[in-house]
Amino acid sequence: MAAKKTSPVAVVMGSDSDLDSMKPCIAQLQAFGIDPLVRVISAHRTPDVAADFADNAAANGIKVIIAAAGMAAHLAGALAARTTLPVIGVPMNSGSGVGGLDALLSTVQMPPGIPVATVAIGKPGAKNAAILAVQILALSDSDLARKLTDFRKTQTEKVIEKDKNLE
Ligand code: RP5
Q1: Strands ordered across the beta sheet of 117-118
Q2: Taking the model in full, what pTM does it have?
Q3: Nearest protein CA to atom 9 of ligand 1, as residue
Q4: Nearest protein CA to atom 13 of ligand 1, as residue
Q5: Ramachandran quadrant class, 95 (left: phi over 0; alpha: psi -120 to 50; beta: rest)
Q6: Beta-carbon neighbour count of residue 163 at 10 Å?
Q7: How far is the CA of 144 from the centre of ligand 1 (A)?
């Protein structure tokens, strides 16, 4: 039997239809040298799998969970309810006609006591979820902290360069 993949970061999405929006998240994590555990788990369609995943996440070596879902997006909250690991929620624009606002409100409006760190809708949020996960891990990982500093420096240099190109 193949060994179960382990990673400090899990990227969970409610449907494979969310994968395209979550590619920037996976790519950004990989750019920091993190190969995430990627799963499709639905709070509504596979609630038992979601519960089992959250219950065992910490024991399986996961340190941060990134959860993406669209429409009535309960995945991040449902996972956060069953683990004390930090959960980052990414609202998806599922094409429901309201541009992801449904998922944004469903993800961000957690009751006091069970936080979900909610990022922007879609691809921009997906990228930020990865960076936020790295920032959390970097608190106890000096190598990642160095990579974050470099990432910010490069980002700043790129914007200054773009500004120069307009002159
Ligand atoms: C949510 O419903 C998923 O996260 C997805 O954004 C949306 C639509 O899912 P599919 O019908 O495309 O599987 O649970």
Answers
A1: 37-40, 9-13, 64-70, 87-92, 117-118
A2: 0.97
A3: 15
A4: 15
A5: left
A6: 9
A7: 33
